[in-house]
Amino acid sequence: MVKKYHKGRRMEYKVRDILKTEGYFVVRQAKSTFPDLVALKGNEIVFIECKVNKYLSRKEKEKIKEIKEKVKCKFLVAYNDKGKVKFYEV
Question: How many angstroms separate the CA atoms of 75 and 35, rounded?
Answer without folding.
Answer: 9
